[in-house]
Amino acid sequence: MTTIRQRRVGKGTGAAEDQPSEETNVKPDGKIPPGGKLWNILSVTVGGIVAISLGLLTSVYVATLHENDLWFSNIKEVEREISFRTECGLYYSYYKEMIQAASIQQGLHGLVYDNKTESVRTINILERMNVYQEVFLSILYRILPIQQYLEPVYFYIYTLFGLQAVYVIALYVTSWLLSGTWLSGLLAACWYITNRVDTTRVEFTIPLRENWALPFFAVQVAAITYLLRTHLQPAQERLTLMAVFIATFLFSLTWQFNQFMMLIQALALFILDCLDMLPTAKVTWLYIIQISGLLLVCVLQFFNSMILGSLLISFNVSVLIARTIQKNLKKGGLLNRLGKLILHVLLVLCLTLLINKFIKKILNLESDEHIFKFLKAKFGFGATRDFDANLYLCEEAFGLLPLNTFSRLSSTLLFYIYGFVLFLLTVAAVIVAFRNLSGSNQVQLKEKMEEYTVTLKPDAAYSLVHTVLFGCLALSTMRMKYLWTSHMCVFASFGLCSTEVWKLILKCLHLYTSQRTQVIKYSIPIITLLYISFKFWPGIMDELSELREFYDPDTVELMNWIKSNTPNTAVFAGSMQLLAGVKLCTGRTLTNHPHYEDKNLRERTKQIYQIYAKRSPGEVHGILRSFGTDYVILEDSICYERRHSRGCRLRDLLDVANGHIMDGLGENEPDLKPSLYPRFCEEIKKNLPSYTMHFTRVFQNKTFHVYKLAKHK
After folding, report:
1. Which spans does this entry mark as compositional bias, Basic residues (predicted)?
2. What is the rounded distance in angstroms from the CA atom of residue 378 to the CA atom of residue 700?
3. Of 84, 382, 456, 660, which is most buried by a Cβ count within 10 Å?
4. Between vectors from CA 610 to CA 604 and to CA 616, what angle results, nearest 5°?
């Protein structure tokens, strides 16, 4: 098992120019005095410099943490590769493969016709996995004159750490656009850094797809925020739409779960459009951009059927069709419009399900069925014995968000302020939505009640629904919290620096004056920044000074043995997580791997995992040989697992799926029966004749046992 131990000494935005109308340096006739224009230019310049500086500092910060945690510059290449855990190692292996290929063309051919990732099968890696970023980066490394100065692994990890700068700058700009002051962006970036445990995990899961994708998603949200501002010039709008499209495309290209994230985004747009809180024309463009971006990725991934069968495409097409059918959706009184809205929602829902069902039927698509089985079981729509669904249900990352997350977020004041701003803007949104639906926003009434009317700008309304929906996702699935917590920093800082928010509060307290609003708008964020700096700066310095070292001698020994004692064509079976490392470190062929978005692979993995079930040696040998297996690796950490409770251990999931009673004290379902055979991974170590005729132990250490399979006719 990989561990980290204490190190031993001895080894050697120009968008901000569109300022809110509350700016004090704007004359009543709408003209900006010369001094005010100069101040705006100076403010934008300083804000831009601060944004870039914070982005670069964040990159250096996470890169330093990664180096200090592993002593990455000092460990051997095999140790560096082992540090890319589970699926991270699989993705990085394709970058390594492209770098080591004789030519770019040969490297691409090896990915399109890959026969080493899944034994006895040839698969197209570019179709099955989102690895275009590895391809692009490897080509860039080969053509740039940097090979003498920078190792391939450093070019790779520095690119990912550099994307963190893009991420922080995008969050900064989004907050700045929402509030009208770059002080808000500064606060958002500081919160992102001080809440690093809950906002990113890039320093220890570098090649993970989300670390590539989330910076582009943040850029897309920033561009949407600017797009939703009023009074944009046609040229500005076109450029912003282009920026949204490029960011959407890159986000979709780099993460296989893109369609689910953008579906939530589409739901946010749909809700706001129904409540008449966003311009319909801009929402339509965003729907079209999502569809076109995803279809372009589909083409690049050789018409990946999982993309074509995505709920996002079905939903967006359904919304556009339903809107064409119901042309008078936004006319009439309150009850009339509510009735139309209910019919509209039902129509969109029915069309989405019908279109999606039709596409999946035509394409015979089953790649994502495990996700829906997991969701069905997770939200209580019936228990399941499905192995794949239970594999997700039992993983902590796919469980509910732990409560200690909120205590950590509260220690920086982030969660308290976020909750306060969320409450205020939710109340404002409800009032605005009711006014829109009831038709009480007529010009005469609006002029009469201008001083008292609660308003919510389109960009703020989008940010509100965005954070609510992604908050629900994070609460239900811990792994997705990084989509929520980063935007939480933006949303809280915007609320704290927003003229509209403080104006609303002071009016409710009958204390409103323009000068008082401006003083509070700047003084409270500055006090918050000072508090964060004094409280967390010493901790960050201590963290940066703590030196550790990568330590996993058993896995290193295993990888070195495989490279030295097995042929290059050998086929290995074992756990998904370990085999990803085997492919990266040794280049041997695998039977299965952690990229789980394929039905055949899921069935194959379940069969391979019978090595941890109660099956006869003959059955296990037959299963393994059917996949061309030459060697099988057994792990004590799985065979004698204690990390999960009874019912969630891998051996328990296999027993239940096979209809067998689970080990240990506890209840079993009544139809489960005792197995006729003992557990394979335990019994094989006794060297009984019934096992040695099929399996010969060729390697052993404290963690791993490797057996060579007999090749019976």
Report:
1. 1-10
2. 39
3. 84
4. 130
b/e 84-105 (16+ beta carbons within 10 angstroms → b) = bbbbbbbbbbbbbbbbebeeee
The sign of the torsion formed by the CA atoms of 59, 60, 64, 67 equals positive
Distance CA 393, CA 477 (A): 10
Nearest alpha carbon to residue 181 among 499, 411, 483, 491 = 499
pLDDT exceeds cutoff 70 at 175: yes
Closest CA to 549 of 211, 88, 76: 76
Instruction: For residue 606, report the phi and psi dihedrals to the nearest 5 degrees.
Output: -60, -40
Of 679, 640, 682, the closest CA to residue 660 belongs to 679
Alpha carbon distance 394, 385 (integer Å): 12
Spell out the CATH class of 553-709.
alpha beta
Please say whether the beta carbons of 157 and 66 come within 8 A.
yes
Q: What SS3 state is found at 550?
A: strand
Q: 378: how many CB neighbours lie within 10 A of its CB?
A: 17
The pLDDT of 371-377, averaged and rounded, is: 75
Segment 68-83 shows an average pLDDT of 95
Strands 571-573 and 548-551 come out as unpaired
Other Cβ atoms less than 10 A from the Cβ of 259: the count is: 22
The token pair that represents 124 in the structure block: 């197209």
Q: Enumerate the β-bridge partners of residue 123.
A: 114
Rounded to two decimals, the pTM is 0.92
What DSSP element (H or E) covers 348?
helix 334-363
Torsion of CA 83, 87, 88, 89, to 10 degrees: 60
- Rounded Cα gap, residues 276 and 274, in angstroms: 5
- Which strands make up the sheet holding 571-573, listed edge to edge? 589-590, 571-573, 631-635, 704-709, 695-700
pLDDT for res 713 = 60
DSSP label at 660? B
Task: Say what the pLDDT of residue 7 is.
Answer: 59
Angle in degrees, 0-180, between the axes of helices 86-100 and 132-143, rounded to the nearest 10? 40
User: Span 494-517, mean pLDDT?
Assistant: 89
3-class secondary structure, 115:
coil
Residues in CB range of 617: below 8 A, 6 or more apart: 680, 683, 684, 690, 691, 693, 694, 695
Q: How far apart are CA 278 and CA 422, in angstroms?
A: 19
Of 28-37, 75-84, 147-156, 242-251, the one with minimum mean pLDDT is 28-37
Q: Are 590 and 118 in contact (CB under 8 A)?
A: yes
CA-CA distance, 136 to 149, in Å (whole number)? 20
DSSP per position, 41-58: HHHHHHHHHHHHHHHHHH
pLDDT of 443 reads: 45
Q: Quick check: helix, strand or coil at residue 673?
A: strand
The residue with tokens 């920033």 is 222
Ranges of CATH 3.40.50 domains, the chain: 553-709
Task: Provide the CA 182 distance to its chain's centre, in angstroms.
Answer: 27
**Nearest 5 degrees, angle CA 316-CA 322-CA 323?**
90
pLDDT of residue 374: 75
d(C-alpha 523, C-alpha 528), whole Å: 9
Match 């009434």 to its residue by tokens.
Answer: 445
